[in-house]
Structure formats: C-alpha cells, structure tokens
Design brief:
alpha/beta; seven-stranded mixed sheet; 27% helix; binds adenosine-5'-triphosphate; binds magnesium ion
Length: 171
C-alpha cells in the first residue's frame, strides 16, 4: 500500500491510526533517510496507543520504553542508526543487547500490559531479526514538495495486511 503524506501532520496522523489498530506483538520496521519522518510517525503511534509521554529520538540511547497508555500496550522504540559503531557488526551488537528477545517476546502480556508494540528506526540494519508479521514502512521524500513524503507499507502477514486495509486513506 502506498500513501501520500502531504505534511508532517499527515505522517503523525497515519502513526496515530496505526497506534489505534495495532495488535500486541506488532513489529513496525521503519526505513527512510535522515529526516524522512520516522520519529514523527512514531510520535503518532504513541498518541494512537494512548501514551501521553513525549516520544523523542532515541538515536543516542538506542532503546526507549514508554509505559502503557489507554491501550495497555508498552511502546518499545528502537533506533539502530548507531548499531555496529563499535568494532562489531550491527547484528552481533543487536544480539548482545537482547534485541532478538525483545522482538520474540513482544506479544507476551503481564500484570500491567497486554504486550508490546516495537517500532524500529533504520530497521533494515537488523533485517535478519525481523519476524514474518513485521509491518515494513518506508518513508521517501517527494522531490517537488519538501513537506511531503510517500509511505509504502508492506507485510508478508495476511492478518497485518487486513488491518492495513482498514486504515482510512490519508489526505
Ligand atoms: N510529510 C512529512 N512527514 C514527516 N516529517 C515531515 C514531513 N514534512 C516535513 N517533515 C519534517 O521532517 C522532519 C522529520 O524528522 P524526523 O525526526 O521525524 O525524521 P527521522 O526519519 O526520524 O530522522 P532520523 O533519521 O534523523 O531519526 C521533521 O522536522 C518534520 O517536521
Ligand atoms: Mg528519528
């Protein structure tokens, strides 16, 4: 599915729709260059999950966790941009940080959450770790309009694809 996002608000609104509809354990793999709008989309996802804390760019912290809001889903926000800066590969460092466990355990509930939603910026750097139900979202600039982006959403999961079809087309 391809969407035209005319402004940063449209990107935020798409995130909010996603946050409203995602199921526990959903992995959202975001790709797109610096400033493409990955964090803007994530801020919308947090709003859709009913999380009131402000989502910031985790570039220097790698992983930020936000306590569940009205949807009782924990938001795990990962930015792999700096992964592999030390003398190791991104995948080896991801394993050392337990990213594979975060991905496989995301659907597990406990006393205060119904599970987690995991959003990964620069997800292509850990492509091998991503499960089949991952929703891939790529944001690309529109050459003729600095405020616009194109979003392509793909998944190999029929269930996640069905959820996508319920999203109202963005203006
Ligand atoms: N249609 C749009 N969608 C998203 N952001 C937009 C759009 N138009 C303009 N912008 C601007 O582009 C910037 C996107 O920044 P953002 O931090 O979300 O990008 P990013 O992909 O997370 O970058 P980084 O790779 O550095 O983490 C913001 O300043 C935002 O206002
Ligand atoms: Mg970012």
């Amino acid at each position: 599915m391809t969407l035209h996002l005319a402004t940063a608000d449209a990107t935020h609104a798409l995130g909010s729709q996603l946050g409203n509809t995602v199921q526990p354990g959903q992995i959202l793999a975001l790709s797109g260059d610096l400033g493409a709008g990955k964090t803007t989309l994530t801020q919308g996802i947090a709003v859709g999950l009913g999380i009131t804390a402000r989502v910031t760019s985790p570039t220097f912290t790698l992983i930020n966790q936000y306590e569940p809001g009205t949807r009782r889903l924990l938001l795990v926000h990962i930015d792999t941009y700096r992964l592999g800066d030390s003398a190791t590969t991104p995948l080896a460092e991801a394993a050392g940080l337990g990213l594979d466990e975060i991905l496989t355990d995301a659907a597990l509930s406990d006393d205060h959450t119904d599970g987690a939603v995991v959003v990964i910026e620069w997800a292509e750097r850990i492509a091998e770790l991503l499960p089949p139900h991952t929703l891939y979202i790529t944001l690309t600039p529109v050459p003729s309009d600095p405020d616009a982006r194109t979003a392509t959403l793909t998944t190999s999961s029929p269930e996640v694809a069905a959820l996508l079809r319920e999203l109202a087309p963005s203006e």
